[in-house]
Structure formats: C-alpha cells, structure tokens
Fold this protein.
Amino acid sequence: MNVAKIKPCDIADGPGVRVSVFVSGCRRHCHGCQNAEAWDFGFGEPYTEQTKEYILKLLEPDYIDGITILGGEPFEQENIPGVAEIVQIAEESGKSIWIYSGYTLEQLVNRAKTEREIWYILDTADVLVDGEYREDERDITLKYRGSRNQRVIETTATFVEYWKTGKMKPVIWEGEE
Ligand code: SF4
C-alpha cells in the first residue's frame, strides 16, 4: 500500500482535531473527485514500519481526537491489510476511527463475507462515511461528506442492531450536526 499524504492536524474530515491518512489507489474515478492524484496505486510513499511509527507518534497528543482514513479507496483489495494495521494501532491508542469509502456499507458487508479483514476494519471503526462522490448530488452545506448520497454511519450502533436482528439498518451519526 502507498500513502498519498498524512495530515497531522486535520479539522475537516471528522470531528475535532484528527490525524488523516490518505491511502493511494482508487478504481472508481468519480467525476469531480477532489483527490484524483491518489487514484494511482503508486502515488505517494510506500506504507512502512516507519510510517506506522510516525502515525502512532502523531496520535499521542491529548488534543488529537482520532484518526481518519481516506483516499484513494481504503477498501481496494491492495489497501486492506495496511488499513487494517492502521486501524489496529489507532484502536490501541484509544482514539476514534473514521473511514471514508466509495463503497456503500451494504457492499462492504457483502464483501466481508469472504474478505474477513473488512469485518475487522468495519467493526473496529467508529464511523464509516460511505458511498461514491456524485457530482450531481454535490452539496457544500453537508458536513464531512461531499454529496447527498453519502452517509455518515455509526458502525458500532449499526452492527449491534445487525447482530440482534439480522437486518442491516445504518444508524446515521448525528454528532455535532
Ligand atoms: S471513491 Fe473517493 S477517491 Fe475514489 S474517485 Fe470517488 S471520490 Fe475519488
């Protein structure tokens, strides 16, 4: 996996002050994508042990509320092992975890039946912002998402209900909105 960029103090991609990790590689090519340079899987720098140590260090200060993983596409097959590792270190740090994906929650849950690391990532994350960016549904008044079709989903609450009822009914994060 390559990492396109890391923002040590990001206030745009989730609540509070966050470390944002933009992974490289996305095959969706949504019209109007803001991160088109990260479509290329070879863009940026390889994710290494040093990158992991750097992220851990960035997560240490008390003023950092959490980590956001976006891209590129965190759930492209090539990126899943690296993303799972970042999620694991973030969980150990006790900080909140947000992930952006062009896939919908339902598509990811379906894939997770055979790709177990997707379960781990979804189950460990606090919030998934899902769905591809659609230029025709663009709305600049939305918080933490670019188009109306995208959803900010509380994964923990969603899965609690899913395990109880067997029904996937996304619980929308209300946070500060
Ligand atoms: S899924 Fe995200 S990174 Fe990929 S093209 Fe769409 S907006 Fe860009």
Q: What stands out?
A: The first strand starts at residue 2 and ends at 10. Residues 17 and 63 are 7 Å apart (CA to CA).
